[in-house]
Amino acid sequence: MTVTVDVVLFTIRERKLHLLLVKRAVKPFEGRYALPGGFVGEDESLDAAAIRKLREETGVERVYLEQLYTFGDPKRDPRGRVITVAYYALAPTDPSDGTWFPVTDLPPLAFDHRKVADYAHQRLRNKLDWTNVGFELLPAKFTLSELQMVHEAILGEELDKRNFRRKIIQRGIVKPTKEWQETGRKPAQLYRFK
Predict the structure, then answer these.
(1) SS3 content of the chain, % helix, strand, coil (to 5)
(2) What dihedral angle (degrees, nearest 10) is formed by the CA atoms of 174, 178, 180, 186?
(3) d(Cα 138, Cα 194) in Å, to the nearest integer?
(4) Where exactly are the structural domains of the chain?
(5) What is the pLDDT of residue 22?
(6) Residue 23: what are its φ and ψ, rounded to 5°?
(7) How far apart are CA 36 and CA 150, in angstroms?
(8) How many other C-beta atoms lie within 10 A of the C-beta of residue 151?
(9) Which of 30-34, 86-90, 91-95 has the lowest mean pLDDT?
(10) Is-contact 161 148, C-beta < 8 A?
(11) d(CA 134, CA 19)
(12) What's 2-130's CATH class?
């Protein structure tokens, strides 16, 4: 039995949630897209392996990284019994020249990576309401419109502006700064995550 790690790296591009895929260079699934990942070294922790594979395959470093789930279907890898520990990662800006796909329009993926990507997206959606994970996709200072856009991209639906702002302010999780951002119309106040 072998252990691998796979990383679902999300970012926001063009107001949509995207994930980064890499083309497989070796069999099986040569030429198909896959999640960044690979085998865990003998003396390597799972977290270290996920960070290493993300860096090696995409050049991406310094992202929010969280263990997601362990996938162990005996038939998930045609090479033999392989268990993968999946992670999801969040990058506030497009950190790579890799191949990005909207989560709603993924190509056929190698192994069970579609199942892994869908699970990661669902987890991210679910955590949006009860954690502060959405802030990992924003710069240190942001407008409430940018925060709403992150929520809409993850959820895949439009939100009512007034209700969203009221909810965020009531939760007390943002703090206004004394800075403003030009928007072409009325300047927007910048906020920080508390």
Answers:
(1) 30, 30, 40
(2) 90
(3) 13
(4) 2-130, 138-193
(5) 94
(6) -85, 135
(7) 23
(8) 19
(9) 91-95
(10) yes
(11) 15
(12) alpha beta
The model's pTM is 0.93
Would you call 56 helix, strand, or coil by DSSP? Answer: helix
- Report the pLDDT averaged over residues 63-85: 95
Q: Rounded CA gap, 151 and 135, in Å?
A: 10
Q: Which helix (DSSP H) or strand (DSSP E) does residue 64 occupy?
A: strand 64-71
Q: Give the β-pairing of 37-39 and 99-102.
A: unpaired
Q: How many CB atoms lie within 10 A of CB 182?
A: 8
Summarised one tens digit per residue, pLDDT across range 36-73 is: 999 999 999 999 999 999 999 998 988 999 999 999 99
Topology of 138-193 in CATH? Arc Repressor Mutant, subunit A (1.10.10)
Taking the C-alpha atoms of residue 112 and residue 109, their distance in angstroms, rounded to an integer, is 7
Q: pLDDT digit string (tens) for 140-174?
A: 999 999 999 999 999 999 999 999 999 999 999 99
